[in-house]
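Dear colleagues,

As part of the handover before I leave the project, I'm documenting each prediction I ran so the next person doesn't have to rerun anything. This entry is a single chain, and its sequence is reproduced below.
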Amino acid sequence: MKEKRSPRTGKWGLMLIGALLLGSQAGCHFEGGWIGSVLAAEPAGPEDADDLDPLQIGIPPSGSPAESPATETPEGGAPVPAKLGPPGGGAPPPVSTTAPDPSPPPAASPDPGPVATKPPSEPSPPTKPPAAAKPEKPAPSKKERKVLALTFDDGPDGKYTPQVLDILKEYGVKATFFVVGTQVEKNPDTMKRILKEGHDIGNHSWSHADLTKLSGQALADQIDRTQKAVEKATGGYTPDLVRAPYGSVSKPLLDYVHEKELHHVLWTVDPRDWAGTSVSAMRANIRKHARPGGVILLHSFGGKKDALEHTIELLPIIIQDLKKAGYEFVTIDDMIDSQTANSSVIK
């Protein structure tokens, strides 16, 4: 061995000396060069020897035989003592031959904070069969228009028809006049006024005949002659409405009317003004039976003697009554165009 080292060896040197002593007691041979190189690597420290307990360096207490550690022989070299463990067994601490790294520990990286994690998905509920479709509710209907049509038959004449026109004009009401052909020829000026003031005109036959008793050419003449008379008196207007006298309708009549692309018109309220009915009775009748889309039957010529005096008296009263009840007055053509007429009226 090379020269002995001073007792003031370092901590690691003392541990190796202990290992050497244990090895020598067990009869192991160590190369001096290996020991010297290890001892020389550790500088001596004044405090190292005093701080170590003999048990920490593997020196058994006096009188206690040390268990011989196993040795390993590296290929082509001297045997190397096995790593020593602490008394009582267990894995020995590793022996380092280099000085500890004086560099400071790396700075801790900033805490990235909690990482958002997707919550565990709950199991999907069992799929339900699709619910049966609910029946669609009908669309709410528009507010029903409260419309009425005033109609006047059997004119025109030179006495009552002008009075009717005056009242209608005063109250701003439009009406429909179903005229008789023979009366049209006698009163062309009244016909012109009817049309000029915005009223509607319908065909009420040529001679006020019962059309259910006619057919063929006789029936056709009752309609056609009146059409021509109105056209002549008004300067070109041709009615598209027909009302049979007495409301008497037959299949041949309707067939002919439809062939000519005309509309047959009946009524829903008949106060029987032609019969001389009192004003109060006619007023009550009309107020009771008036309905939206209804048609009121009155006259501007004919009937019993002086019967239409009651009609002239009634007309302004009933117009005011029905307006207060929320009704508006329209012509038959207006009803057809707006589809507001009672379905039983237009044929």
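The first strand starts at residue 71 and ends at 72. The chain has two domains: 11-81, 147-338.

All the best with the project,
I.
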